[in-house]
């Protein structure tokens, strides 16, 4: 994927992306928090939009998007939100 003259692929690290000065660590925290909030739609399987939320989850898992979080300073906060949400959904 090419975005703003920056080539990005799944193996690009957060540090490399942040060094381009297009993105910051704060930007990634906001994006991952947004994705986690979107995944909260998985709580109601009868919701008409459930398939879209499941599609999002499937694609995030396939691309391994959250692996980038390990390089963020506050990765524990992001993963705690994610696991808390997933356990709430399973419950």
Give a description of the structure:
A two-stranded antiparallel ribbon has the order 1-2. A hairpin with a 2-residue loop joins strand 1 and strand 2 (6-7). Residues 1-8 have low confidence and may be disordered. It has 91 residues and is mostly helical. It has one domain (25-90). The chain has 4 helices and 2 strands, in the order ββαααα. It has helices at residues 14-18, 25-39, 50-63, 75-90, and strands at 2-3, 6-7. The radius of gyration is 14 Å and the shape is globular.
Topology (elements, then pairings):
Layout: E1 2-3, E2 6-7, H1 14-18, H2 25-39, H3 50-63, H4 75-90
Antiparallel strand pairs: 1-2
Helix pairs in contact: 2-4
Please trace the helix and strand order, writing H or E for each element: EEHHHH
Distance between the termini: 37 Å
Q: Helix/strand/pairing class, anyone? A: mainly alpha
Number of strands: 2
Mean pLDDT: 78
Largest sheet: 2 strands, antiparallel
Gross geometry: globular
Strand order across the biggest sheet?
A: 1-2
> Radius of gyration, Cα only, in angstroms?
14 Å
Q: Quickly count the domains.
A: 1
Report the total helices: 4
Percent in strands: under 5%
Task: Give the proportion of residues in helices.
Answer: 40-55%
Ranges where pLDDT stays below 50 over 5 or more residues in a row are 1-8
């Amino acid at each position: 994927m090419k975005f703003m003259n920056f080539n990005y692929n799944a193996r690009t690290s957060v540090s490399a992306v942040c060094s381009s000065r297009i993105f910051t660590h704060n930007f990634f925290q906001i994006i991952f928090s947004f994705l986690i909030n979107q995944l909260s739609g998985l709580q109601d399987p009868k919701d008409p939009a459930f398939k879209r939320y499941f599609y999002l989850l499937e694609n995030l898992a396939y691309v391994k998007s959250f692996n980038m979080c390990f390089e963020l300073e506050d990765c524990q906060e992001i993963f705690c939100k994610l696991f808390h949400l997933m356990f709430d959904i399973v419950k």
